Queue: 4 jobs
Job 1
Amino acid sequence: MIGIFTALFLIKLVSGFDTNLPYSAFNECKEYRVDGQYVYKDSFNIHGLKNNRPYDNEVFRMKFYVLTDRDANIMISNERKVQNNDNAYEIVIGGWNNTKSTIRKNKFSVEVVEKLGSVLSALYPTEIVISLKQDGELTVILPGYERPYLNFKDTKASAWTYLGFSSWENTPARWFYDCPLGIDGPGGNDINTIFANIDIRVSN
């Protein structure tokens, strides 16, 4: 029994995945599945999410989990159906075959921020927290990795309305969104998130 716990602990130490996170952690989340296309088929109103709980100086603060091998894509925009030139934030987690994560200012455009590293798994959920401050600072946190994982200061900050998800060709993704923030939000005390946020791994 001790050997199994040690093995799981080492997996978490090396990879950053929370292998001990129970599926019950998703009970209060909503689920959305992507069949394996770089298409944002559906959109969700950010201000209608019950667990979007920003701090006083923020526009939004949201938590997600995702199960996929590569290209966990999040679109934040003011359009239900985003076109390539529409003003938006596209956050790509584990793109390029799970080797790089980025923030873009438009769909499929040039990256304004990027970070190398493997962060996705189809077996273990990757936890993602995204926040936007009123001054235009966009932050992406992956608990278990260095904080923030991605950060971008937009000098032309905007109020955003919609949230969407996509993946890449032939790569399905299982998203859990509108999740309780736990300790990653105001007044949080989620013990699972506390364990996941113990900063014990050497960052990439």
Note: Residues 22-182 form a domain with the Jelly Rolls fold (CATH 2.60.120.870).
Job 2
Amino acid sequence: MPGRDDHRRVRARAGGAAGVTTALAVALLSGTGAVARVLTSRALGEPAHRGTLLLNLAGAFALGVLTGAGVTGDGLLLAGTAFLGSFTTFSTWMLDEASLPAAAAGRLLAAATLGGAACAAAGWALAAAV
């Protein structure tokens, strides 16, 4: 059973006030990424699976740019995990795939997997070249 002082050790590892600030920034950017995803999806219109695919490919490209630019630490946590993690969405992609016939779902899987890797590599290459 956890000891009484376990929460103090966790807080100390998180960096005290800086850890709280980072946690709040993660929450804010996660919410912002999710809202950006919803608004972009609505703007892209139907069919929904194409919009989800485009958002996920754009997110893969952006994550490639971040890593290619050498962003690390809290910057990568905030931009990559918080914002892009909620801007892109695995659960919506899975829901979209489940609603398609098997052949179309297979094409979507291939496009997302191969396209995501290609977009991430292109983003990385672009940022590394600059």
Note: Residues 9-129 form one domain.
Job 3
Amino acid sequence: MVGRAVSLMLCSMVGAEGTISYSEETTMHLRPALESDFEFAFAVKKEALGPHIAVRWGWDEKFQMALHQQRWREKPWFIVMRDDERIGTLSLLDEGDTVRLGEFYIEGAHRGHGLGTRLLNDVVRDCDASNQNIRLEYLKWNPVASLYKRHGFEVVSENEIHFFMLRTAENR
């Protein structure tokens, strides 16, 4: 999956309101994150997840940066690329029979156009092909649940702030 290109129908121009229209073919792929991507990854996370954190606890920049530094060191990060443009992040940690998916954030101008769905489709297809389950967690009040449920993820446990989901490989 990593580095494998995915053809997408996108316009190479962004409209006045920052929206993307779909008309020309371009490529989306993952590349391993570099140290120089650290600030970008934090900014994308803050934009995508920040409102869901702020509604419950407020946004503590210093705490969130320390947490981001910890997560950055403990798992492999990838940058979602649209041609030569960074548009998001994703972490895929191979745990043998399971892949842990996390840090899945797409920049606001690129959200709502099916890019996350297409990327998740590729992750699911590749994990099915290698007979690996996928697990993830998300904040209970984050509306991302519908995306994961559409891809066959099921809640297997929860705590007071997270739902933990699992998608069993179709080959199992």
Note: The chain has four helices and eight strands.
Job 4
Amino acid sequence: MTATAHKQDLATTNRQFLERLFATLSHEGWGQGFLHALHDDVVFNAMGVSPIAGRYEGKQTYITQVLERLHARIARRPQLSPIMIMTEADMACARFQSREGVGINGADFSMDYCWVFRIRDEKISEIWGYYDTGKMIALFDDSYAPLEGRIKPPQKH
């Protein structure tokens, strides 16, 4: 097999992997299906300036320093849907959106994302995540007050 053919096969395999992953995320959200798709030594780069921006090395670090913090701030989890996936050898890019997410403070957590992936053996080894940093900041802002017409958090009983 030529190097070009190998890269094309790898791109096709990685595209199919991400299509399956996003089908799972669309139904289950950021649950075990997502975590299973990550290498134990995954590196997650949350780009921009926000309470979660930074470089996180290792799946457990990502879980405790990003996912658990996000889950603690979300009253209604968003529904995810992919828009576009592109692959080139071991690299991929996915544009996707989340809708109907609401923070515990009433912040609208619906947004568009663009993530760049490095994929190794049909698992994600690195992510560069681009997202709406303003919405991420609002999610973590305890003084945030929703403006009229914004989504309101569920009422506690």
Note: The chain has one domain: 3-139.
